[in-house]
Amino acid sequence: MMMGFGNDQFSMAFYIANRPDIDSYQGLNHLHSLHPGEIDHIVEETGNHWRKIFNVSAKFAFQYLSEHSDEHELPQSWQAYRDTLLYQKQCPIALLFSPPQFTTDNVVHIVAGRTYARELGLEDLIWLDEKFAMNTSQRLIVCPYLDYRQLSNARINQLSGLVSSLSS
């Protein structure tokens, strides 16, 4: 069962080990499309950690979709993308708190954090460097955690290229 933020038609998913420390999300047992303003609410209630997660994932989504997708009409900035589309009904990317389910679909799976990848027991990973690993048959990428210092702009560029290589 998939649990997290987004819609069930996603083509790419980030997987993280934790979820917002808010009662309504602790018991979440399905995919929940965020509503406008919900990210602000989560950040207000939980602080800087979740602000970083949303900002970094919005930066990646905006960059990747700007470069690789003609289907999505995008706002002018990653900040506007975060506030109006990220993990909402029309967003092609999900943020999941449940482990990856590798099926025959065309989903690109991105596990955020080497430690979480180890906890999940992911196998047959090819480490490209100390930060990124892949399993192309499962359309899986392990990347640094969704934090400014770990998934810097340069690493967002690298991640975008890796996702592109799996999507073509």
Give the C-alpha Rg.
15 Å
Tell me the domain tally.
1
Overall geometric form: globular
Q: What is the mean pLDDT?
A: 93
Report, as a whole number of angstroms, the end-to-end distance. 27 Å
Can you describe this structure in just a few lines?
The chain is α/β, with parallel strands linked by helices. The chain is built from 6 helices and 8 strands; from the N terminus they run E-E-H-E-H-H-H-E-E-H-E-E-E-H. It has one domain (4-167).
Topology of this protein?
Elements: E1 4-5, E2 12-15, H1 23-26, E3 31-32, H2 38-46, H3 48-68, H4 78-84, E4 93-96, E5 108-112, H5 114-120, E6 126-127, E7 133-135, E8 140-143, H6 153-167
Parallel strand pairs: 1-3, 2-4, 2-5, 5-8
Antiparallel strand pairs: 1-4, 6-7, 7-8
Helix pairs in contact: 2-3, 3-4, 3-6
Tell me what the structure shows.
- The protein is α/β, with parallel strands linked by helices and 168 residues long.
- It has one domain.
- The chain has six helices and eight strands; from the N terminus they run E-E-H-E-H-H-H-E-E-H-E-E-E-H.
- The protein has an eight-stranded mixed β-sheet, with helices on both faces.
- It starts with a strand and ends with a helix.
Which terms summarize this structure?
15% strand; globular; alpha/beta; eight-stranded mixed sheet; 168 residues
